[in-house]
Here is the input.
Amino acid sequence: MASPRLRSPFNYYLLDIAVHDFLTGAIDLPYYAVFTYYGYWPLSDTHCTIWMWFDYCVDIIRLWGLVGVLVDCLWAVVWPLSYRLHNTLKKSYVIIISGWFVTYASMLPGFIYTRTHFANQSINRTCL
Here is the structure.
């Protein structure tokens, strides 16, 4: 975002969603294509763990990005004077980072437990 006119708080929400879409396309979808093409999981447990992490977390973080956009738009429509005076990049950063933090903090314990206890797909060649 080289131009200073593009550095509005709303555009950072859109950038956050674009990053999530890029991560989905670059990391999540190639693994899904391999799994769909072969009909079983031909890769290692590590690749399965990476795929599951991005499959779960990136989609939920994208939803938090959409919630940030919706809250920003609601604030702009319902309280326009307050929005112009108090909407800053710092508040946008806090909302975006809190979405990432809430997702990781809520998903990580269950994900670690599941991957350590139920993630041996080498026997039946699945990735669940």
